[in-house]
Design brief:
InterPro entries: DNA_glycosylase. The protein is mostly helical and 269 residues long. The chain folds into two domains: 10-38 and 162-267, no CATH class; 48-156, Endonuclease III, domain 1 (Orthogonal Bundle), CATH 1.10.340. It has 15 helices and no strands. α3 runs antiparallel to α7 (102-117). The longest helix has 16 residues, at 102-117. It is globular and about 60 Å long.
């Protein structure tokens, strides 16, 4: 698997975008609220198997349903992975019904259970991420590259270096950066590898930027990949999903990214 094909200036463009995004008060607040304790993937769940289950169940959940989702996760986690896996489908349905799509979520649980029983813990938690993600996406029903990325990130911990890529990053963020991605699910892996290589190459810059903001504290010697993921996710959510008037309309965006001559807000000024 190779990273996304990208023009030579794409990494400079991404660095500028992240710097601008991190300077927005609403994005900063979102990152601060989710960096140390993410509401979707809480740290108090210790069992890596339960974390993989929760990561899969977090799909198709809207932000407005986060409290309902958190309640289901808390109940399921207190039951435990082994007990939950042994329960009949109708009992599990009563637990996860508030999330919707119970058949798909139960199918994911059953397939995940089978997958985990045939894979060593060391392989899952310490093996090559690209290999494990491809294995997971190919063998677990109702999974995908994105679900596999999220599951492995959560299982290994926020600061493991994995940067999950959702569909909005493919359709909204990639064009803004000028990335050329393959069609289909493999695009999620191409962009993940691109972003992770970028985080590795620009780690010192982003660590300093996060420190200067003062909103979060990175663990000692941690790669800022989790911080970068959150900045991009929340910038996309607030400014790209529904194109914001302050954002450059060029694709790829210009060096200013926001409040430039190509943005509707400035054009009307």
């Amino acid at each position: 698997m190779k990273p996304a094909a990208a023009p030579s200036d794409s990494h400079v463009r991404l660095t500028r975008m992240v710097t601008v995004a991190a300077g927005q008060d609403d994005v900063t607040a979102d990152v601060e609220a989710n960096h140390d304790e993410n509401r979707w993937w809480p740290t108090w769940i210790a069992d890596y198997r339960m974390r993989m289950l929760v990561a899969g169940w977090s799909t198709r959940i809207s932000y407005r349903s986060i409290n309902t989702y958190a309640g289901v996760v808390t109940r399921a986690a207190h039951i435990g992975f082994d007990t939950l896996s042994a329960m009949p489908d109708d009992e599990i349905t009563t637990i996860i019904q508030p999330l919707g799509l119970p058949a798909a979520r139960i199918g994911y649980l059953r397939s995940l259970q089978s997958f985990l029983e045939s894979r060593a813990e060391d392989y899952l938690l310490h093996g090559d991420a690209t290999t494990v993600i491809a294995d997971f996406a190919g063998q677990v029903e109702h999974a995908s590259y994105k679900v596999a990325q999220c599951s492995l990130l959560y299982a290994r911990g926020y600061h493991c270096g994995i940067i999950p890529v959702d569909s909005g990053m493919i359709t909204r963020l990639a064009p803004a950066l000028g990335l050329n991605l393959a069609s289909g699910a493999v695009a999620h892996e191409q962009m993940r590898l691109y972003l992770e290589a970028h985080a590795d190459a620009n780690g010192e810059h982003y660590t300093r930027l996060a420190y200067e903001q003062g909103a979060i504290a990175l663990p000692a010697r941690a790669n800022p990949s989790w911080w970068l993921h959150l900045v991009l996710i929340y910038f996309k959510r607030r400014y790209l999903n529904q194109p914001h008037r302050r954002v450059c309309e060029q694709r790829p965006v210009c060096a200013q990214v926001m409040d430039c001559e190509h943005s509707p807000a400035m054009a009307m000024a």
